[in-house]
Amino acid sequence: MSGYFFTFEGGEGAGKSTQISLLGHFLKQKGYDVVVTREPGGTEGGEAIRHVLLSGSALKAGKLFEATLFAAARIDHVNEVIEPALKEGKIVLCDRFIDSTRVYQGANGENINQYLDILEKSAIHGHMPDITLYWICRQKQVWKELINGVERARMQTVLKKMLLRFKKLAGKLS
């Protein structure tokens, strides 16, 4: 029996983690076997890579290096969490997946889509989400919650670019 794979995508502060938690709790109450996970992370190796990525040290080595680390975390995540859960017929709810990689890796204007295609095919083993839910929220609310001080103008530009990329991805699939 094959399970179902749902991914939650969207920018920072859009409410993905809250919604995935609520849906996971609801489905478990209804008797479904549910795995709630996240990227990068979800495994011991993935969490170690997440720590490196969030520290900012990977970005200093460039977008290709950073993308490769995301792919390494995804390979571990798919092999250790997603694939086994789907084979057991479970519902997998994943906070971020391939769309976030494409949005964030392209946020600074570099075009590395061909490289991302290769990494994606290597990492996901054909496990595309059954459904991807995009969380788009008011930019002003996100800016108010996440950004203060000097970084505000620069981050607003970056967040606008990411939001447009998520909207573009959501539009292609609707």
Automatic annotation (TrEMBL):
Q: Which Gene3D superfamilies match?
A: P-loop containing nucleotide triphosphate hydrolases
Keywords linked to the UniProt accession: ATP-binding, Kinase, Nucleotide biosynthesis, Nucleotide-binding, Transferase
Enzyme Commission identifier(s): 2.7.4.9
Top EC category: transferase
Q: Which reaction does it catalyse?
A: dTMP + ATP = dTDP + ADP
Database matches in PROSITE patterns: THYMIDYLATE_KINASE (PS01331)
Q: Where does ATP bind?
A: G10, G11, E12, G13, A14, G15, K16, S17
A GO cellular component term found in this entry reads: cytosol
Domain Thymidylate kinase-like intervals:
8-168
Gene Ontology process terms (BP): dTDP biosynthetic process; dTTP biosynthetic process; dUDP biosynthetic process
Write out the GO MF terms. ATP binding; dTMP kinase activity
One Pfam family linked to the record: Thymidylate_kin
Task: Describe its function.
Answer: Phosphorylation of dTMP to form dTDP in both de novo and salvage pathways of dTTP synthesis.
Record family assignment: Belongs to the thymidylate kinase family.
Report the PANTHER family cross-referenced here: THYMIDYLATE KINASE, UMP-CMP KINASE 2, MITOCHONDRIAL
Which HAMAP family does this one have? Answer: Thymidylate_kinase
Q: NCBIfam families this protein is in?
A: DTMP_kinase
- Its protein name is Thymidylate kinase
Its source organism is Bartonella apihabitans
